Amino acid sequence: MEKEHYRFYIRTRTFLGINPTAIHDELTTVYGPKAISYSTVQQWAKHFREGNMEMEDDPRPGRPISQIKPENIQAVQDIIDEDPHSTYDDIEAETLLSRGTVERVIHDHLRMRKLASRWVPHELTPDQKQLRVQICRENLEKLRNNSWRLCDILTGDETWIYHRQIGRKASNACWVAQGQSPGTVVRRTQHEPKTLFSLFFRSNGALLVHSVGKGETMDRFYYINNCLKTVVKEIKKERPIMGTQGIKLLHDNASVHDAQEVKDYLRQEHIILMPHPPYSPDLSPCDYWLNDYIKRNLEDQPDAKSLHKAVTEIVFSIPQKEYKKTFNRLIERMECCIENDGNYFDHLIQ
Predict the structure, then answer these.
(1) Which of 24, 75, 109, 331 is most buried per CB count within 10 Å?
(2) For residue 215, is it left (φ>0), alpha (ψ between -120 and 50) or beta?
(3) Which CATH class is domain 126-166+192-349?
(4) What is the pTM of this model?
(5) Higher pLDDT pick, 75 / 57
(6) Nearest residue to 72 (alpha-carbon basis) of 123, 118, 28, 110
(7) What pLDDT, in 10s, does the model give residues 4-24?
(8) Which conformational region is residue 104 in: left (phi greater than 0), alpha (psi within -120 to 50 degrees), or beta?
(9) Is the CB of residue 337 less than 8 Å from the CB of residue 132?
(10) Parallel, antiparallel, or unpaired for β 153-162 and 194-202?
(11) What is 3-49's CATH number?
């Protein structure tokens, strides 16, 4: 029952000479524990007996109910413009507005919300942003005019994988009873066991999972002999007639990948290097999908051998449709990069 209805009933019964106790008993009989208190009935009965007909609350002393004025809105805007990290307490102290007024100004009038700052891979310069846009446009044009096909793109990269998995913060959350403490997760140290993996795949599935042995170094010659040659062999097995003809390799601009010997080997095998802008993990399928997928599905492993086996099982068990979907997302990401003038865009599509 609305408070206005209660007050109307109290007023009517009071004018009929019914005392507050009887009125409260009547309301309790009908509404039970949801009825208003006896003190409230007594207060309003006294109010009406004194000849007051109004059923609205008397204005309270202090600030007016509404302080949403243009000058107050501008004052809040000026504080936020000067320091985007300002807190509600800071704004209240400077404007002398109430917390509720500050919240209404920010959310209803300025249409603002407070978000944590984003981590980005690199502080892109204007030239780097322009290059990202240029390369995305050129690659998309070749894919759209059918001079390139998604199914002919091969991609690969290297990533370190720890033997012990700690998961993301959200995945470590658990329910605990009142008074209990949550479990603990020990942070990794720089000395924890880890293995460097080289991973290659196409839109039809995985091609290579290679782990670098202890004491070995991934240089340009190691990359050619242990990774690229194995990948080329697998492609020729898949395409006995076409071989590597028409295959495009998308890998980043790491010094190993960019070495002249690597370029010469790829040219010798008739593999075309697909341009990739610097500092662009958001345009690399390994970075925006596969590496994270592996780490999310991986369990602790006691040694490098078991880790290699576990990673291999994960990579080769991924359905083909997921690999194809990842390359379709590459097109969407290149379009998004162009639309956002070369800026990082992950926060817009996740």
Answers:
(1) 24
(2) left
(3) alpha beta
(4) 0.67
(5) 75
(6) 110
(7) 777 888 888 888 888 888 888
(8) alpha
(9) yes
(10) antiparallel
(11) 1.10.10
Residue-wise pLDDT for 189-217, tens only, equals: 778 899 999 999 999 999 999 999 999 99
| Letter string b/e over residues 227-238, b meaning 16 or more CB atoms within 10 A of that residue's CB | bbeebbebbeee
- Grouping H, G, I as helix, E, B as strand and the rest as coil, residue 30 is helix
Whose tokens are 């782990």? That residue is 211
Q: Which of 96-110, 231-245, 315-329 has the lowest mean pLDDT?
A: 96-110
Q: Are the C-beta atoms of residues 175 and 299 closer than 8 Å to each other?
A: no
Tokens of 250: 């998308």
The secondary structure of residue 247, as a DSSP letter, is: -
Residue with tokens 């007051």: 52
Q: DSSP per residue over 84-144, as a string?
A: TT--HHHHHHHH---HHHHHHIIIIIS-----PPPP-S----HHHHHHHHHHHHHHHHHHH
